[in-house]
Amino acid sequence: MKPIKVGLLGLGTVGTGVVRIVEGHQEDLASQVGSPIQIGKVLVKDVSKSRSIHVPDHLLTENAWDIIDDPEIDVVVEVMGGIEPTKEYIMEALDRGKHVVTANKDLIALHGREIKAKAKEKRCDVFYEASVAGGIPIIRTLMEGFSSDRITKIMGIVNGTTNYILSKMSQEGAGYEEVLQEAQQLGYAEADPTSDVEGLDAARKMAILATLGFHADVSLEDVEVRGISRIKKEDIAFAKKLGYEMKLLGIAERQDDQISVVVQPTMVSTAHPLASVNGVFNAVYVYGEAVGETMFYGPGAGEMPTATSIVADLVAVIKNMKLGVNGQRALTPYKEKKLKSDEQIAYKNFILLHVEDKAGVLAQITQVFAEYDVSLDSVVQQPNPNNPDAEIIIITHYASRANMNKVFEHFEQLSVIKSIKSAYRVEG
Amino acid sequence: MKPIKVGLLGLGTVGTGVVRIVEGHQEDLASQVGSPIQIGKVLVKDVSKSRSIHVPDHLLTENAWDIIDDPEIDVVVEVMGGIEPTKEYIMEALDRGKHVVTANKDLIALHGREIKAKAKEKRCDVFYEASVAGGIPIIRTLMEGFSSDRITKIMGIVNGTTNYILSKMSQEGAGYEEVLQEAQQLGYAEADPTSDVEGLDAARKMAILATLGFHADVSLEDVEVRGISRIKKEDIAFAKKLGYEMKLLGIAERQDDQISVVVQPTMVSTAHPLASVNGVFNAVYVYGEAVGETMFYGPGAGEMPTATSIVADLVAVIKNMKLGVNGQRALTPYKEKKLKSDEQIAYKNFILLHVEDKAGVLAQITQVFAEYDVSLDSVVQQPNPNNPDAEIIIITHYASRANMNKVFEHFEQLSVIKSIKSAYRVEG
C-alpha cells in the first residue's frame, strides 16, 4: 500500500511530538487508515542542530518550498507558528492541493476565514483541533458531537499559563509577580508573558470556539479582553472566603442570535465544575439548550497532548482522502454575526469598595444601585483592619453592563467612596 | 431539496426528545446537512394514546414493518429498547439499505458485532452515541478525537441512578435502602432497580467503551461486575474520613494489549476529577499514553440530552449520505482480545477488619500481607466504639488480585480476625 506522505513545517516541541506519535504508533495508525503514514520532509531552521529525536538528514530542509512544491507530499502539518511566512506557506500548499493540519490559533483566529475559503475552493481539508485546548478534542465536539443542539454558552479555561498562576496564588496565598516569576522559571510562562497574562491567547481561542459553536464569523476584534496582571492576592482571598475561585475565563454567550465574547478574570463558584480545574490543565464548559451542562477537561498544551490532536486530525484527513471527500465536512458559518450591546450583556458582579466609616454610607451606596435598577444578592460591610475606612463587599444579581457602568460612573462622584478596589464578574 | 425521511421506532421519553429537536432545530439542521429532515413515520404501542407532543395521526403506526418496508424512509432511529423484536427490526432495516441510529446499549453490548457486520455488508451507518453516557459525545471522542493515541485506561461514572444514590449517601450520611426509595419516588431509579444497582447497566456501557478504546472485541461476559447494594453507610463515612468518595466506577485497563474491564464500587481520592461528579451526572475519564489525563462530563440520561446525541448521529448519517460514504467510517476491532489474569490485574485496596483487641494481632495481620508480597500504604488500628473488638483499616499499595485473594483466604483461617467488614478498590 502506498504510504501517505506528511510534510512537517517546524520541528520544535510539538513537531517532535508529532514525529514521535507517527513513528511510535505506526502500526495502530496504519490499521485505522489503511496505509502507512510517513514523515516525508521536515522544515527546520538549522539542519545541523542536534535534536532530542533522530530524523534522517535527508528528510530535513531549511527551505519550505522543498515541501510545498513536492508533489509526493499529501498533507502539510504546520507547527512552526507565527503569521508570516506561515500563512503564505499554508495558502500555497492548499493551492497545490495539499491538505493542512495546523496548531496555529493565531493564524486561524486572524485569517481562518480566508484559509478555509481557499481550502474549500481546492477541496482540501484544513483541520486545527490542536489550536484550542491542546489535547482536548473540543473542536470536534462542537462541530459534530453537538451538531444537533443550540449552544448558548461556552466558558473556557483555555490558557494554561494563567490558570497555573491563579491556582498557585489561590493555593499558596502568593502574589502575582512572585508566582509569575516561578512560572517563568518552570517554563510555564514565557520571558515576555504579555500574550498569556493579558488574555490575548485566550481571546484567539475563544474567537475560534465561538465561531464554531454559534455558526457565526466571530473575529478576534469582537472579543473583549482583560488579563490577570492586576489581580491582587487580596482579591483571591476575598473570593475564597465567599466560596469562589478566581479564574481567567473566556465566556462566549448567545441569546436569540445576539452574541458576546469576553475574556476576563471571573469569580467562579466552587460548586461549578470549572472551579476545580487547576494548574496548567484546561477545561471547556459548554451549555446547550437540549443537552444542558457539559464539560471537557484535559491538558491544554505540551508536546504529546498537542501532538495527539494533530495526529488525530491527520487520521481524519487520510480517512477523507481514502473516501475522496476532503474539503467537504467543514462548517461554514451560516448566521449573521450580531454582537450584543452593553444593554444586552448581563452578569453578576463582585465589587469591593473602600468607604468612609460613618453613618448613612451604606444607604447612599445601595441607593445608587437602586437608581440604575441593579438588584443586590449580598452586601457585607466590615471595618478595614489596615486603615480607618470601612470595606463594603457587594455581589449583585444579573445586571446589564450598561447599568453597571452607570453605577461605577456615579460612584466616582460620591465623596463617601474612597476607592473602587476591585470589580469582577461572577459565574456559577 | 428532497427531505431526508426518518422512521422512529418508539415514542417514549427519548423518542419525544428526538421529535422535539428535529422539529425545533429544523432550520439549523437543514443549514448543516443541506436538506430538511422529516419525521416520516413513528412506531408506537397504541396510536390512540394521548402524548405530550403532537405528532399527526397519519404518521403513527403500531406496525414496525410500515417503517422497515417503506422505501421512502432513509434512516431508522431506534429508541424502543429491548433485545427482541428490536434486533430483528434493525437487522431487517439494514438489509433494506436503511441507516440506523440507536440508543440501545443492551443491543450494542450484546449483538454489536453482528449488527455492525450487517451494516458494513450493506454499506450502511450504525451509530450509537446515545447508548453510553447520554449527552456526552464520548463515543466520537474515542473513535476520532483520540484516534492517534494509545488509550490505556477508561474510568467511567456511567450510571446516573447509582451515582445519585452514592452522592446522596455521602452528602447526607443516609443508608442505601432509604436513598434507593427516595430515588424511586423521584423517578431516578426504576421499580426493579436490579440492572442499575447491581452494575449490569454500567457493565454494558463499559463493554462498548472498551471495544472502541482498545480496538478489541470486548463483550459483556468479559466484564466483572459488583454492584452497590451492599455498601454500608459506615463504608462511605470511612471513605470520606480518609479523603475518598465512594463511586460505582467502570474501569477498563490495557497494558501491553492485555485487557481487564470491571464495574465495582471504588473509593476515589477527592483529588481525582471523578470524585466531584455528583447526582445523576455522568463522566468518563480517559487516560492516553500521549494525551495523558482527560475527562468528559455531562448529563448521562434524560429526554433532551439523550436526544441531542441521537440527532447528532442523524446529522452524521445524513452528511455521509450526501457524500456517498455511509458504512465506511466504522471502526472494526483489529486486535485480538487478551484478558488479564488475576496475577496481572493490580490495584490499591481498602480493607476494614474487625479483630480481637489483644497484643500481637496487628503483627499477625501485617505478616500475612508480607507473606503474599502485598505492601501497605497505611494501617490504622483503633478501638471499636460499639463492641469489644478493635477496627483495623488498611490501604495497600498496588497489589495483584491473585495475591489479594490469597490474603483474604488466609484471613479466613486467622482466629484473631472476627470479620472482614469491607473491602474496596481504591483509585486516584
Automatic annotation (TrEMBL), chains A, B:
NADPH binds at K105. Pfam families: ACT, Homoserine_dh, NAD_binding_3. Residues 350-425 form the ACT domain. Its cofactor is a metal cation. Its EC number is 1.1.1.3. It catalyses: L-homoserine + NADP(+) = L-aspartate 4-semialdehyde + NADPH + H(+). NADP(+) binds at L9, G10, L11, G12, T13, V14, G15, T16. Pathway: Amino-acid biosynthesis; L-threonine biosynthesis; L-threonine from L-aspartate: step 3/5; Amino-acid biosynthesis; L-methionine biosynthesis via de novo pathway; L-homoserine from L-aspartate: step 3/3. L-homoserine binds at E190. It comes from the Bacteria. Keywords: Amino-acid biosynthesis, Metal-binding, Methionine biosynthesis, NAD, NADP, Oxidoreductase, Sodium, Threonine biosynthesis. One of its GO terms (molecular function) is homoserine dehydrogenase activity. Belongs to the homoserine dehydrogenase family. This is Homoserine dehydrogenase. It comes from Paenibacillus dendritiformis C454.
